[in-house]
Amino acid sequence: MFADILLAVPLGILLAFTIGPVFFVLLETAITKGFRAAIAFNTGVVTADAAFIAIVYFTTNSLLTEIKDDPRLFLAGGLIMMAYGLLSFIKVKKDFQKDVECKDNISFIRIKKVNYIALFIKGFLLNFINIGVLGFWLGIIVVFGPKLDMEPNRILLFFSSIIIVYFLIDIGKILIAKKLKNRLTAYHIYKIKRVISIILLLFGVFLVCKPFFLNVLSSLKF
Q1: Is pLDDT of 143 > 70?
Q2: Which end of the chain is more exposed for a tag (fewer CB within 10 A), N or C?
């Protein structure tokens, strides 16, 4: 049992520091909305991971292998992420213009009520539309499942340990990011939000283009 937990710890650390859209949005949420808001967002992310793990475990590997490389899923997920990034980019500017009440003191912003349920859903959907996450969990169960003898209890402990380690490290990231909040003016926060929107847009473009690049690489193989 303890050996299974030790096997999961490095994967939890790897997952926590994987650079992706969720990574950047989590930090942005912690900086702009605070600790509890970031926890709500991250809980949605982890729930999406749990859903992927369940899909991987209860679905045949051959079917999942076909699904995870389906260009239509990359296209759909990429377009959704691109649309979200673009709309966020436009909305951030409008919100900034509304929120800044005094031109001589741009560090003052009206405090808005945080919708934790909406943040949970945002975290879930942002992680779930990234089909690459499905590929990650499929790879994990293909590699480590046989080492766990595909025993349900051991697999549950293994994946739970990965998620817990991942979540705990994310709490540390949230606390570090939250400390920056008091040092940032409204203009700095506005710039951070704009950069995050651009990053999401680029990740969307990457998802849309990924099947094309994979086809090119496969055609180059001799």
Answers
A1: yes
A2: C
Identify the CA nearest to 144 among candidates 168, 130, 162, 132.
162
d(CA 77, CA 132): 10
Under 8 Å between Cβ of 193 and 28: yes
How far is the C-alpha of 199 from the C-alpha of 205, rounded, in Å? 10
pLDDT of 182 strictly over 80 = no
CB 199 within 8 A of CB 85: yes
Residues 10, 16: Cα–Cα separation, whole Å: 10
pLDDT band for position 157 (50/70/90)? very high
With H, G, I as helix, E, B as strand and everything else as coil, classify residue 109: strand
Tokens standing for 189? 């926060």
Report if pTM > 0.70: yes
| Nearest partner of 189 among 95, 87, 90, judged by Cα | 95
- 143: exposed, middle or buried (C-beta count within 10 Å: 0-12, 13-18, 19+)? exposed
